[in-house]
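Hey,
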Amino acid sequence: MTDYDVLRVFCGPRGGYGNELAVVREGSVMPDPEERQAFAAKLGFSETVFVDDPERGVIDIYTPALRLPFAGHPCVGTAWLLDVPELVTPAGVVGVRLDGEFSWIEARAEWATPRTLRRYATPAEVDDLAVPPAGEWIYAWAWEDEAAGRVRARAFPGRDDGIEEDEATGAAAILLTDQLGRALNITQGAGSQLLTAPQPGGWVEVGGRVLLER
């Protein structure tokens, strides 16, 4: 079995929740993309990262069903694990900032996989949503406190790959921040927390807590 770390990314204030992530630090042990895809499917996490150059931060990201040029929670988690100033993804170079208990990345909204940002009137409506049929990537959200930038969200990838709901989704948070043009404090899933802030030149920061699970 290939060695890998398991992290929880975007944990809540007390360290719970967060989206699990597998990171294969020695990507060279599995260089073939088809083999990587099969391994990611076997693990079954929302995403699995293969580190191809730990010093430069070159990474390769897979869901159980497909390869991604960029994804938020894998970049935040891997940045924390490797403690590097940037990550190199197929989409572009991701800035990294580690600040106390929060790990931040800076990326562009156009790097994110397209998805539907669907606004609801109240957090209760978001809480009551059933998992929709596969086929459309939906990020459901509502204001908890618009003046304070507090958002309630849930994410449904719709890929029919065993991941019906994503506990924490950095790329979707980047898209929503870019659309609204303001900093956000997002509670997603069962209790994960994501912080975001728009930056000059069309960049967006997203950050959260990361814990090593095993």
